[in-house]
Specification:
By secondary structure, this protein is α/β, with parallel strands linked by helices. It contains 12 helices and 23 strands. The strands form 4 sheets. Strands 8-7-9-10-11-12-21-22 form an 8-stranded mixed beta sheet, covered by helices on one side. The chain starts with a strand and ends with a strand.
Length: 459
Amino acid sequence: MASLINLTRGNEIGANCYYLDFNGKGVVLDSGMHPKAEGFAAIPNFNAVGNRKAEALFLTHAHHDHVGSMPLAMQRFYDAKVFMSEPTYFLAEPLLHNSVNVMKKQRQEKGITEYPLFQHGDLKVMMDRWQACHLNQWWSTEGFTLQDDEQADIKFRFHHAGHILGAVMIELEAAGKKILYTGDINLKDQTLMNRAQVPAGSFDTLIIECTRGANPTPAGYSRANETQKFLDAIKTTFDNHGGVLIPVFAMGKTQEIITILHEAQLRGDLPQETIYIGGLGRIFSEIYDRMANRSERFRPNLQIMEDIHPQVFDWTKLKTFKPKKGQILLVPAGMMTEQTTSNRLAQLYLAREQDGIFFVGYCDPDSPAGRLKRTARGQRVNLNPEYGEQPVLCNVQHFDFTSHALREDLLDFTLQVNPKTCFLVHGDIAALDWFQTQLAEKAPQMKVHIPAPGVEIPF
């Protein structure tokens, strides 16, 4: 007997956390923090499992909505080891330390008394229970390698997921079942990250992300076309004597976009000007460099910090900063959250007709980035109460360099795996509904669930 409990607090793109029970032995898949909620409302509902224990905790990758509450999961399941890939082992630590700093700041600014939910010292102790595992190798939940035909109550192996550095899919065998949990997956090549490596064989159960389920892919879309449009927009901005601000996530997107810009500079498509990144972007880029020959990615010889020489933008000099012609600032945060570098810099770019603010990733509609994207040129927008409404005279564009699988590719992937049972997770209601409708039509024999939060579903 096996069952799944969705420990998230809503069917949406929020915190990820799922509990699998195999005849009384449990595992936890990811433990994220909701990017828009605050305090205890942002973490998974661990109470939904009652007094059940976990044999192991698994981390698919080091994005905050998958790892942000892992220290709390480790406190709740205090005997369990945490398994992840080697790059994730190194990326998750600075991300969680940064999370502590952010929570401490929010406690002061917003009065969220429960913050921080964990401390820097907790992370140092907890890392003793982290174990990095090689891909395509069977492991036991005790942390030992297994032969392909070797049996265990619960065995697992990781497969390259193509999302960001170190992202994996998790294959599990337990209670006579074969389960595949995708985490976040990309089935197309990016600039640095190559596509997911789909595991061979059949699976009884598939737990699949549905992030882009509500977004039909435009006709003619390709990464190559998107890259060319992006570079053309930058060149046009430079020809108009302007500079470009690119709000970007520090992990994954920073490294992808700076590689695109670097290669364009080498070809002579862009001038050899210094590219500026954020401090956290530098930390993650250094890890990308360290793992270049020890992970699945393109351009293993590219060292971002040594070969591209990006400069870290000094946010303490914001008051005296002036945008310049030919300047590219690749700084956090991607959604331009208030008090971030990109939000504060945007106030200097908005009224400058020659400049551009270019988005390269997902923008939540309710975020400052989402509001700016909806604002027509010549209208006014409020990105931060501290500055009030500002006129939008600069060139605002969005380029889709997604690190998630396109919905059509995800649907084909699901039909290829052809599981007996499919759980649709990590998507807004419209995205989940699209996949459920498509699978009902194309695979009526498949049992498809949108697992309600806190409800145990046998499979």
